[in-house]
Amino acid sequence: MIKPLIQIENLCVRYRTRHGMFTAVDGVSFNVKKGLATGLIGESGSGKTTVGKAILRLVPIASGSICYEGVDLATLSPAEFFPWRKRVQMIFQDPFLSLNPRATVAEIVEEPLLIHFPALTRAERNERIAALLKSVGLAPEHAVRYPAAFSGGQRQRIGIARALAVEPELLICDEPVSALDVSVQAQILNLLQELQERLGLSLLFIAHDLAVVEHVCDHVIVMQQGKLVEEAAAEVLYRHPQHAYTRQLLAAVPVF
Q1: Angle at alpha carbon of residue 121, lines to 115 and 122, rounded to 5°
Q2: Pair 224, 43: CB distance under 8 Å
Q3: Residues whose CB is less than 8 angstroms from the CB of residue 6 and which lie 6 or more positions away in sequence, other chains included
Q4: 172 pLDDT more than 70
Q5: Which helix (DSSP H) or strand (DSSP E) does residue 161 occupy?
Q6: pLDDT per residue as tens digits for the range 95-113
Q7: Is the pLDDT of residue 256 over 70?
């Protein structure tokens, strides 16, 4: 049995609106296993991105637990959560909005190093920045440029380098290729798989594209309207879906 890295139990996330409280995630429970890629799929508004943000404490948690190696992240104060933040990083959906347009690539990748590894010298930071850019397929001269000089796929590579800077154990990939051209999508997916294998990363891959999830993930979780409706190994779920909603999602995938 592969040991779970994170165990989520009865997670609930609610937002206050002008009409009252809205439940975005309602009693969701699942594990993210160490070294594997777990897919989280569902239509827009199903709550899958909110689950990823809840793990990072980017949204308020109404109830439930998020246990990381026995520590419930949901109960920690901001100061107590700080040492755990570098162990879980997120790759955001839109590479055009997730990077500071006024910072160079070097400054973007350096920022998490300054926060989490303050003892590093400038030379050590520069060396690590160069290595990170190389690991995601970017050249050293890219470090002095600004995000506006890059394509969407290159910007997503910068975001991946930034996420890897603090040596995380879990990468939460929030639809990381949905805003990219199809040919570029394949490049980014191959890069993520190569990094996962080389670095021993665990992935929580959030997507609505079932073909992408089938290509990347070992285990798949299906969400509908804030609830978990089905969970299975990828090959089992795609061949023998049990829930009617999962069958509808699979039936909507174009066949060429």
Answers
A1: 90
A2: yes
A3: 31, 32, 55, 66, 67, 68, 170, 202
A4: yes
A5: helix 152-164
A6: 888 999 999 999 999 999 9
A7: no
